Amino acid sequence: MLRAGLILFFISVTAFSQSPTYTVAVIPPPSGSGTNFFPSMSGINNSGQTAGFNFSGFGQVFVGSPSGSTLIPYIGPLYGVYTINASGQVVGTTSGGQGFIASTSGSSLFPLYSTGVGINDSGQVTGESPNGQAYFGTPAAFALIPFPAGWTWTAGAAVNNLGQVAGNGSGGMFIGTTQTSTPIPSPTNSFGATVFCINNSGQVVGDWGDLQATQVFIATTAGYTLIPFPIGGTYSTVTYGCLNDAGMVVGSGTFGGWIWDAAGGLVMLTELVPAGWTVDNAISISNNGLILAQAQYNGGALEYVVLSPTGPPAPVTLTYPVNGVAAISMTPTPSWNTSIAATSYDVYFGTSPTPPLVANVTASSYAPGSLASNTNYYWQVVAKNSVGTSSSAIYSFTTLNPACTFSVSPSTALWSYEGGVLQVNVTTTSGCAWLAASSAPWLFDTGGAFGSGSSIIYANGNFGTAQLAHINFSFGNQSVGVMQRGWPSVQIFNDVSSSDPYFDYVSLMSSYGITVGCQTSPPLYCPSEPATRAQMAVFIVRGLNLATGASLTYPPQPYFQDVPSSGVPDSEYFSYVQRLAQLGITVGCQTSPPLFCPDESIPQGEMAVFVIRSWMLANNITTLTYPTTPYFTDVPATDEYFPFIQKMAQMGFWTGCGGGAYCENSAVTRDQMAPMILRGMLGAP
């Protein structure tokens, strides 16, 4: 199958060569805790407070801090305390299975058998309700998180300030709200994949085990990235509070505690603390870069400590657009390598060589909106933390000249997992400059990345991993959709083998979280079954959201009488059907009364309409053009689906049923739908 990762521009990766160092401060036991004190701590806020409890005796809860720890009034025998929010509220569960919120001023219990695991800065909690379903809310009022389609059990593990819950369940891992839930793709062939953390960007972190090791991953509903072991390492783990809003992760492994981010990779924390200290476990990280860890000094006792950065973050490296390039899209997203210990980034952007401050962000990218054509822009990023700031260089780029037109051949490419060389022919007007770029490390330029006028780009693909991959190799206003197969021995669904003609596409649908199959145990996709209209709604909306970066929103008032928000089995598809209608992709199967016919199969002709309308939305196309000479003998120009079927064939999204026919009345099967979705919305070959 194919490697995962929908990424648009190459990022030049640099190591943490300028990592800040950390001071080490021991967290003392709370006054009055007695001699029989064996603490367990997790979570840390920007004030350096941690959640803790004494797991000996009666399990006393406390708020820990290097400046002094404070006992919380006794709650009862405990099962665990998990994390802490900005206000110093901790969340946990009693030994009787009852969740609670507590602070030094008192505590509140959830209903019996509702566990408490995650808490956000508004004091809203998640965990598992008595009926085996994740919830979100407070002890006074909370709501259930709906199951992803086909799931029968969920439990919340973490919640962010936007009300998004990350959790685990019968079908794997998920991100959900009180309106809907979406599965998180799991590392291939993993078992025991568990999510622990979520940040305000919707990134989650967890770990998973196979027969040899446990490994940490960072993910969204679009896919996952495995965090590599340190050199010589064989396992790594994380726990609650392991991720901050800057995308930095802390964890523990073969050689002790570590910190990681996407740009700089993994660094062992023992290398960043004063001599004599050894960091055995890194537990949690705050948004301002404080780290809760376990460490020992000169081989002494293992103690809970807070690591604090001693200096400003290292300057970031601006990665896209490359300095001085031309023919950049008029809707670019400038990006940069994150800086370890940075808590936010000031972005300076404009047409002046000394650009003005326009935003402060925690992510490593900024979208300035629609820019003027053929115009020079300048930008700079300043990394910040509580200690100080550091500035990047000022870069410039020029947006695309509308007088320049580009064409590319080939428009898509499919590679073997063995890798190879990609040759792309660029045709444009003399003097029109362009930049070719890819963000996938397995696809890199070997010649012709910058150009003016017509030329040839050469790129090389590495030997693949077991994971699937899909990127866009982009330049000017053109892109080449590149897909690389993974090892054919890696199979996600028992009924879709590597010999299946749609194996790659079904695998990629799973990796992107567009589908979880038709059955979880054993994992099945049911490839030959006709896709229902309800299933189609899920596939298209998830694919379109992935292509555009949108989240799932929809009107609460039902469009169709046969898909109400609750009360019938098809209500699980309500949010997707609503979104499909809201976007104008469907008007249902009947107007009076308005019906969607969710359980009916989809003929090929109707599917062409759904795919082309979605493709137009994903690419901001408002007028449908198509060849007027029929491609297929059974679809004349008078056919109601003719424009859409012609466009499907012209774009290579679907080529019919063979023998010059399209078979517009034949039902679309679940395996046939996979390439239609990926080609139509994500540019796959």
Layout of helices and strands:
Layout (H helix, E strand, L loop, with lengths): L21 E5 L12 E6 L5 E5 L6 E4 L5 E2 L6 E7 L5 E5 L4 E5 L2 E4 L8 E2 L5 E4 L5 E4 L4 E3 L9 E6 L5 E5 L2 E5 L4 E4 L6 E8 L5 E6 L4 E7 L2 E4 L9 E2 L11 E5 L2 E6 L3 E4 L8 E9 L5 E7 L5 E7 L8 E3 L4 E4 L6 E2 L7 E7 L6 E5 L14 E9 L4 E3 L3 E5 L6 E4 L2 E4 L4 E9 L4 E3 L7 E5 L2 E3 L2 E7 L7 E7 L2 E7 L18 H9 L21 H16 L25 H9 L7 E2 L2 E2 L8 H15 L23 H10 L18 H13 L3
Helix pairs in contact: 1-6, 2-3, 2-4, 2-6, 4-5, 4-6
Give a written overview of the molecule:
- The relative contact order is 0.09.
- This protein has six helices and 47 strands.
- The longest helix is centred in the last third of the chain and has 16 residues, at 533-548.
- The protein is globular and about 85 Å long.
- The strands form 13 sheets. Strands 30, 32, 33, 34, 35 and 36 form a six-stranded mixed β-sheet that branches. The protein has a four-stranded antiparallel β-sheet with strand order 1-28-27-26, with no helix packed on it.
- With 685 residues, it is mainly β.
- Helix 2 (533-548) packs parallel to helix 4 (604-618).
- Among the domains are: 189-308; 318-399, Immunoglobulin-like (Sandwich); 406-484, Immunoglobulin-like (Sandwich); 503-682, no CATH class.
- The two termini are 14 Å apart.
